[in-house]
């Protein structure tokens, strides 16, 4: 069985770019939809629970990104590649969760924590080098 060639820096740059464009597009579409003046889609009682879950998830995502960053430093090259993509995906999850809450509520402050964790993931976990 032959081994697949390792992904190069261009492919990882493309992965990161696709993740960032996806997050920006989702939040942009949510902004356009919310700008049409629709009322909040979530009852107030559920909103408190969702916000608590979002902040908890964002905190856990930030901790996971930093733990993966520490793990990447001591991993082999193929494992570094895999862990880098996982760290970016965890950051993307946090941003998308904030985007979903923005879509449901129309409150921009709910987007920012997740977007910051995504930015942290992209900054803390650089493109893998061979």
Architecture overview:
The chain has 130 residues and is mainly α. The chain is built from 4 helices and no strands.
List its traits:
single chain, 130 residues, mainly alpha, elongated
Outline of this structure?
This protein has 130 residues and is mainly alpha-helical. The chain is built from four helices and no strands.
Q: Rounded to an integer, what's the Rg over CA atoms?
A: 17 Å
Mean pLDDT, to the nearest integer, reads 88
Total helical segments:
4
Q: List the helices and strands in order.
A: HHHH
The CA-CA distance between the termini, in Å, is 23 Å
Provide the β-strand percentage band: under 5%
Shape: elongated
What structural class is derived from the secondary structure elements? mainly alpha
* Strand tally: 0
The main β sheet shows up as: none
Name the poorly predicted regions: none
Helix content class: over 70%
What topology emerges from the helices and strands here?
Blueprint: H1 9-34, H2 44-73, H3 77-105, H4 112-124
Helix pairs in contact: 1-3, 2-3, 2-4, 3-4
